[in-house]
Amino acid sequence: MVEHIPSFSAKGNKASSRMFRSYLRMQLVPIAVLAFIILVASLISPVFFSKANMQNLFVQVTLNMVVSMGMLLVILTGGIDLSVGSTVAISGVFVAGFMRNIPVGIAILLALIISTSFGAITGFIVSKVKIAPFIVTLGMMSFARGIAYWYTQSTPIIWTPFAGANFMYALGSNTLCGIPYLALIWISICILTALMLKYTVAGRIIYAIGGNAQAVRLSGIDVSKWQAVPYILSGFLCGIGGILLTARLGVGAPTSGTGLELDAIAAVVIGGTSFNGGVGTVSGAMIGVFILGIINNILDLMNVAAYPQMMLKGIIVVSAVILATIRDRYKS
Amino acid sequence: MREHEVTPILELRNIDKHFSNVHALKSVSLQIRHGETMALIGENGAGKSTLMKILTGVYEKGSGDIFIEGKKHNITSPSYAKKIGISQVYQQAELIPELTVAENILIGEMGFSSKGFINWKELKKTACKFIEKYQLSIDPDEKIKNMSVANRQLVSIVKVLLRNPKILIFDEPTAVFSNLEVNLLMNIINQLKKDQITIIYISHRLEEVFRIADRIAIMRDGYVVSVIDNINVKKEDLIQQMLGRKSSAMFPEKETPVSEEKILEVKNLSSEKIKNISFFLKQGEILGIAGLVGSGRTELARAIYGLDRIKRGNIYINGKEVKIKSPIDAVKHGLFLAPEDRRGEGLVLVRSIKDNIILSNFKNISRCGVLYTKKENSATQDLMNELSIKADSIHMMAGKLSGGNQQKVIIAKALLARPNILIFDEPTQGIDVGAKSEIYALLMKMKKEGISIIFISSEIEELQGICTRIIVMRNGAIMGEVDSELENSEKILNLMYRS
Lengths: 332, 499
What we know:
The structure holds 2 protein chains of 2 kinds. Chain A has 14 helices and 4 strands. Chain A has helices spanning 14-26, 28-44, 51-60, 62-76, 84-98, 104-127, 133-152, 165-173, 181-199, 201-218, 223-249, 260-270, 282-301, 306-331, and strands spanning 157-158, 175-176, 179-180, 251-252. Chain A has a two-stranded antiparallel ribbon with strand order 1-4. Chain A has a two-stranded antiparallel ribbon with strand order 2-3. Chain B is an alpha/beta fold.
């Protein structure tokens, strides 16, 4: 949404309208799927477009949105991060636990530092020791989840009685002009990610590494250093995700974020990001998150049980990718 | 002319082939007799491989006719070529590393399975029969991944033989072979000749050609210039015919004087693939490195650029010794490499021209990691205009460009890096003549601007055209240097091929 904002000014800039069209063409499948799902949702449920449900939807997508931005960066370099769900849990339980003894601001900072270091460890092993990211993050997924259980002794930590509860409560539940704080936060994170990818050296290098790491290496760029960056950022964003989740739920649960890696990967891939790396956009990933989010939302509204939801999600993910693949083949 | 000449097994009549604006084959006519071994020689780009690709159905011919045993055939696909008995031995590409020799030989062949089950006994027996027949020292139970490159090549030959081809094509089969392995292959070919199999043999190694060919066809610039019987042929004559008369119009004038200062000096450099290399590059000079594929020229560039580990030896830049352990160090010391494998190592194909060019230097277009979009666009646009890269815009995907334009993007990238020393590895490989001469002109321009260039190529003519000195490599070592008699192609060729 951000990196390709077309100029709708009266001047009608030609170049930007051409870019807008090429963007539409590129994102045709996810946009079409999103539009279709919104249409179905509004037909099925009269309350879908109500303010309360919209607020609810924008809050529901928060966790996946924040985590998907990190996942996007990792997949753009040709990697994968399976540890996101566990890192969210780590950050969530630590922030709730720390609040028992220290001011909430420092608790949040510490939780972020811890989750970012987990990302840094993953990034180091992937880029310097050169182990396949699938394996490293699979190990990290189990390791981090173990720590979350150990720290909490398997019991969710309720933060409400502790100092800083007011702040956490506001973070999780308040709105600004009708927009939930949580939504404001994820919108900012998406904008920042898009700006980073488009306007910074880091962004160009992340794309290029995914496209052809050897070409980047021959250009005299320290590929292994840059390969670690997305994992560190992913750890950081999972940290934010965990804090927001804890703020919203009122507890830091060691089970939180279970299965989140699948949602994040699905959102990124539905959004048109290539699993080989090098190709993909923030807006695509956002559309992917919304597609999954609206499906959950509408099934909740219809009181459909969780299991059919999971089944449907699986079908949607594979169908979207099939459609995109067919389109790519047709193009070439 | 004999009256009752036997119908040739293969006859090509006026085969013509264009690639966009390159005339690759010009009315090629060739007759090959049943059971003979015809060697096909010529410089890179003479059209040998194109002709073979038309025979094997990889390319479609432009015009002309192909007759097999007197019958006209229109070879439209590789499977059609296989069906009519034309087979080519490829370089190990179709072998599966995890399977054994026997499995690889017989994979895809019918008659060894019934109701979906494989008859392993039968399979192994047949494989052994072939291995024995050609006296190969290969264990049929060995896995391909554990075998040497040369032995793999032998396995692929056996695999092709199983199809009972009438015409067997070898394209540079010995490029990766040691002397001993060459002898093995020669024995196999002699056996095939006894079996009356017709062979077309393409090689740069003239000694092999003399050993096995009945006749030799020489190609140059898309023509078959002559076909001679392999009796009392002199190597010098062949080389002369391969080169023909020089066309120097393509090359710009070599005018700028070269300073005597050595900007780069390499002393006794050895890596896994190169042995004891010593040479120097003068300020503002274009130094050519000639050699066949596998002679170690690319590996020399890789060692200097920090891509391959250096075992021994020293590198000096401007008289000071430098340690180059990675391309990062190399770029820091003012080097830049335009690699041989454009698509695999040079470009990020899925990204735009702009994204590719700016990769080499973010300094002038960014501050604290943030890019100035305007500066970035104008810098790439300027380079695109200067090199006349033909594309819709700087945002066009690099993978969609033609080979020549892709090469220019790499040159643009190299220019943006502002190196003192530029290494070009086969910059003109696979691009058309027009783009080639443009690239020569660019090299000259860079030289004028004071960049010292190492230019690696398998085409002697272009090295002679633009270099001031040429180093010739073979088997990972420097065989000699040519500076005073650059026009003396025979001398260079003699150094390149083993004499």
